């Protein structure tokens, strides 16, 4: 995928008193506040998995990675030069709110997609999608077209290694190269509307007491895949929305062999189509999550005669299972999940938007005539067993979401 020069944008610095706390917005934008509060954006600086990986790359790069990582996860801290140091010690509460209201609504332009390629102008004016906003006592408003465009999100949702140019996360360019990008169905059209799927109108008012009932108010839940993080932070609505989003993404079609004889192996075709995601499935830093296929074959007595992708008691996915994602290699060619050491893509079997992939599983010959029952599920888990171990979390506590399922029967005569 094309790499823009990640060094081309000069660093911007801003006075630390320039940004307001999200708490100051809630008086008038209470619904939007509640939606944002439970979102991954609000936890971008405190997310334990991020903090752990940050400490790891910071340590191994002797601080060289610090500015890069914090520019998107703690953008206010970065702009105001409070972070690094990466522990965030001594940073003010506003900077700890991560990707917050006042960071996002201070953005005036995105000169460069990726690597925090936004420009901000924090203060009295809040920028947004309305060209006719009522001026409030708290702030002025100004229209910027970029708010309704994918490039706005692309400022952070495209992660390029600043030293070797490797594209670590390419959500924006996956979108741009695909059918949603060419039809300009924006990130906002799926992620800032109620429930999964493309834009559903959400009429209402943008602020308490605002006189104008608008055709559409953009929701700020921004659900993705984050079931565990939302639950852990106590936001059940957000967790449910993440589940629904995952369940809207894929469809499975099974191709089953017909009329097998005993001892003849059966080749099952599992076709998975990315029906609902505007980018690859999965997208983002997939090294930290698991998306895989589980297949269970049972005989007429209900005994399991074959299985694939069934996790062990320690949560591990067996070696020969079908697992989707990107893996990285370091400069020496060894597989790594260290974002700073990653130098090239080792493998990538993800599913492009509105495309399908065909995977195959061979069931060894069944000894007796009869009918066997096949059940296939596409599963998702926010944290890998390795990640859970490092975070001191029991992998059994990480929810597994069933994204899609399909079933069928094979006759052995
Ligand atoms: C005193 C009430 C009040 C407070 C506090 C407040 N706002 Fe607003 N805001 C409004 C009103 C009223 C509107 C106009 C709504 C309309 O025209 O439909 C608005 C509109 C907006 C818009 C839309 C602007 C546009 O042109 O698209 C944004 C963005 C916004 N506010 C952000 C914020 C942020 C960020 C904060 C916290 C730092 C905040 N607001 C605090 C009352 C408030
Ligand atoms: C990740 C960036 C981001 C964050 C965080 C964020 N917003 Fe927004 N907000 C947007 C975008 C983008 C839009 C416009 C969406 C569109 O036009 O499709 C928007 C729209 C709005 C609007 C106009 C309403 C509408 O229907 O478009 C208001 C008001 C607003 N945001 C307030 C807030 C407040 C208050 C917070 C914090 C509680 C917040 N935003 C957090 C990006 C953000
Ligand atoms: C200032 C940088 C920034 C901008 C702008 C931004 N995001 Fe994000 N976004 C992040 C970061 C950082 C995370 C990861 C937070 C975490 O999990 O630690 C994230 C997480 C998300 C997630 C949740 C992923 C999950 O695992 O559930 C979604 C969905 C998302 N963003 C959508 C959007 C959309 C849509 C826009 C544009 C309207 C946008 N973001 C704009 C930085 C940004
Ligand atoms: C057609 C609807 C649609 C569009 C358009 C869309 N998305 Fe998504 N997005 C989804 C669905 C469904 C998922 C859940 C499945 C997955 O992870 O791909 C998702 C997941 C995500 C995630 C979670 C990834 C993770 O690892 O947790 C992020 C981040 C995200 N989208 C950002 C974006 C951004 C940025 C854009 C625009 C460049 C965008 N999306 C466009 C539907 C959409
Ligand atoms: C250009 C913006 C950007 C930069 C720079 C960035 N990230 Fe992120 N990070 C994101 C976004 C957006 C997400 C969520 C979607 C995704 O996976 O792409 C994310 C997700 C993550 C996650 C997964 C969180 C989860 O709960 O699944 C980890 C871990 C992480 N980042 C660590 C890092 C580290 C360590 C660095 C520095 C080497 C870094 N990030 C640099 C934007 C960024």
Q: What do you see in this structure?
A:
This protein is of the alpha+beta class and 413 residues long. It has 2 domains: 22-222, no CATH class; 249-412, Sandwich (Immunoglobulin-like). Helices cover 20% and strands 23% of the residues. The chain contains 12 helices and 17 strands. The protein has helices at 30-37, 48-60, 66-73, 75-79, 101-104, 150-154, 171-177, 179-182, 187-191, 227-232, 236-247, 385-391; strands at residues 107-109, 119-120, 125-128, 140-143, 159-160, 167-169, 250-255, 266-274, 290-298, 304-308, 323-324, 326-329, 335-336, 344-348, 356-363, 370-381, 400-412. Strands 9, 10, 11, 16 and 17 form a 5-stranded antiparallel sheet that branches. The protein has a 3-stranded antiparallel sheet with strand order 7-8-15, with no helix packed on it. The longest helix is centred in the first third of the chain and has 13 residues, at 48-60. It starts with 29 loop residues before the first helix and ends with a strand. Bound molecules: heme C (5 copies). One heme C binds at residues 150, 153-154, 157, 171-172, 175, 180, 185, 187, 189-191, 196, 198, 224-225, 245-246, 248-249, 276-279, 281-284, 289. The site of one heme C (HEC) has 26 residues, from helix 2 and helix 3.
């Amino acid at each position: 995928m094309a790499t823009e020069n990640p060094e081309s944008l000069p660093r911007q610095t801003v006075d630390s008193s320039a940004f307001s706390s999200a708490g100051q917005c809630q008086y008038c934008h209470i619904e939007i506040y509640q939606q944002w509060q439970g979102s991954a954006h609000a936890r971008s600086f405190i997310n334990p998995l991020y903090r752990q990986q940050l400490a790891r790359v910071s340590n191994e790069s002797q601080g060289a990675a610090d500015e890069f990582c914090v520019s998107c996860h703690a953008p206010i801290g970065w702009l105001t030069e409070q972070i690094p140091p990466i522990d965030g010690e001594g940073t003010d509460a506003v900077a700890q709110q991560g990707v917050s209201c006042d960071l996002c609504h201070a953005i005036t332009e995105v000169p460069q997609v990726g690597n925090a390629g936004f420009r901000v102008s924090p203060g009295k004016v809040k920028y947004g999608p309305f060209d006719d906003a009522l001026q409030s006592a708290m702030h002025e408003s100004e229209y910027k077209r970029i708010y309704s465009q994918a490039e706005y999100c692309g400022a952070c949702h495209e992660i390029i290694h600043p030293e070797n140019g490797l594209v670590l996360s390419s959500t924006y360019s996956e979108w741009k190269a695909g059918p949603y990008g060419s039809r300009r169905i924006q990130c906002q059209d799926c992620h800032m509307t109620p429930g999964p799927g493309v834009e559903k109108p959400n009429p209402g008012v943008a602020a308490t007491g605002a006189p104008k009932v608008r055709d559409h108010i953009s929701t700020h839940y921004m659900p993705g895949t984050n079931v565990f993080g939302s639950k852990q932070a106590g936001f059940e609505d957000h967790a449910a929305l993440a589940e629904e989003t995952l369940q809207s993404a894929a469809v499975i079609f099974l191709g089953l062999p017909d009329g097998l004889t005993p001892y003849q192996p059966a080749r099952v075709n599992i076709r998975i189509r990315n029906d609902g995601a505007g980018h690859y499935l999965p997208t983002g830093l997939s090294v930290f999550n698991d998306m895989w296929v589980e297949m269970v074959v049972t005989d007429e007595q209900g005994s399991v005669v074959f299985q694939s992708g069934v996790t062990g008691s320690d949560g591990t996915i067996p070696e020969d299972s079908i697992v989707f994602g990107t893996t990285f290699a370091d400069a020496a060619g060894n597989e790594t999940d260290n974002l700073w050491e990653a130098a090239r893509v080792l493998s990538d079997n993800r599913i492009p938007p509105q495309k399908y992939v065909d995977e195959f599983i061979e069931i060894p010959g069944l000894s007796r005539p009869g009918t066997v029952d096949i059940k296939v599920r596409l599963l998702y888990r926010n944290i890998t067993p390795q990640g859970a171990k490092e975070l001191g979390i029991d992998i059994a506590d990480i929810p597994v979401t069933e994204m899609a399922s399909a079933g069928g029967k094979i006759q052995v005569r």
